Amino acid sequence: MFNFYIIILFVLLIITFLLSMFFSASENSFIQLNKFKIKNLIYKNKKIGREIYKILSNMDLFLSTILVGNNFAIFGFTSISLLLLLKFGIPKAQATTYNLIFSTLLILLFAEIAPKNIGRERSHYFSYKFYPLLKFFQRLFLPITYPVSLLIKLIYSLFNITKENRLDEISKKEIYTLTKSSGMKGLFPNFDTKMIERIFNFRNKRIYDAIIPLNETQPISSKKTINNVKKIFSENDIEYLPVYKNNITNIIGYTKPTDLLNIKNKELPIREIMRDLIYIPEFINLLDILDYFEEEFVLGVIDEYGIVSGLITLNDVIDEILGEEENIISKKVKADNNINIVDEIIVSGKTPLEQLKIEFGIDIKDKDVNTLAGFLMKTFKKIPSRGTTYKYGNYQFKILKSSPTKIKRIKIKNIS
């Protein structure tokens, strides 16, 4: 009888220890579940997805079950281990001390730390295997956990705490992390993960992040005739022309090519048909100006002194989201003695000289400028037109695209 009693206690000791391990592992494994995978299981009409969703839909009940079950298991384990020590004839004082040390170390290492780490690392495997057992304990402990859940809800209401279901909404951080990791793994090789980041940060973007400075536009005098303006549009690939009065900083309106259609009097001053310009301060957010573009194509941006500092269009706002053109647009490589040499590259005018030196070995020594466009403008002492070429060392620079105010695209060819 004595031996049978000892065996029963040992069996109960193992059971309570395993239950403590189970509840500790369950806590971490269910909380660490990937919500995308659970949602996917639900979309595939899998029972396991629906059941796990039900468990996590009521986090109060889930956590209450874990805490109640773990406390019962730990209490049972320490009580049974103390009984066993006493049965082996160890004095009560010493048995209590031994039990405290033994139980604490054993539970801490093998029923808390180890299961929690395993549950975190193998969260889906553990949850899929043992969710029925957790559901059983949820029902078993319901008489205890239900009042606890009601108490928690009362605390929420007293402190005005909003409870969220962690599976219902996917945060922007999770979407960004998913797309970034997918891009790194090559799942979406042509997907620009930086665009996601720009979209999420769009609310914090200011107008000056997308503004076109006034010196990069091509303002025309309000006295220009319709015929003159038509000629400017035909010679330049531009969507609009800002109109100024008396001086270039006094922008009073703008015009588009479509405004000039069906105008019979070609000598009419452009101020007679130009569109009025709406002015907005440069320190407001990009998000706040979107409504303006329902009626206007161009907005004038003014600084704190009321001076027009630049212009902005809806395309500029979209470019801020999608990203501007990369500095290195394309390149061609040729083989020379089994060595790949860059034969031809097409770059943006804003490409830093330092980047050309580091990536392609094109060493342009000029301390006064930082970009390729700046170097070419300094060389020509003007903004060169399309097709203009310039030789520097072993390279030929050809202007592929430019405007009256900037060099936009250049082809660099190795002529060595």
Automatic annotation (TrEMBL):
Organism equals Candidatus Mcinerneyibacterium aminivorans
Give GO terms: molecular function aspect only: flavin adenine dinucleotide binding
**What protein does this entry describe?**
HlyC/CorC family transporter
**SUPFAM superfamilies registered for this protein in UniProt:** CBS-domain pair, FAD-binding/transporter-associated domain-like
* Entries under Pfam families matching the protein: CBS, CNNM, CorC_HlyC
Residues spanning the membrane: 6-25, 61-86, 98-115, 136-159
Q: Which InterPro entries match?
A: CBS_dom, CBS_dom_sf, CNNM, FAD-bd_PCMH-like_sf, FAD-bd_PCMH_sub2, Transptr-assoc_dom
A GO CC annotation recorded here is: plasma membrane
| Membrane found in the keyword field | yes
Specify the signal sequence span: none
For the keyword Membrane, the answer is yes
Keywords (A to Z) from UniProt: CBS domain, Membrane, Repeat, Transmembrane, Transmembrane helix
Q: What is the lineage of its organism?
A: Bacteria, Candidatus Macinerneyibacteriota, Candidatus Mcinerneyibacteria, Candidatus Mcinerneyibacteriales, Candidatus Mcinerneyibacteriaceae
Annotated CNNM transmembrane domain residues: 2-192
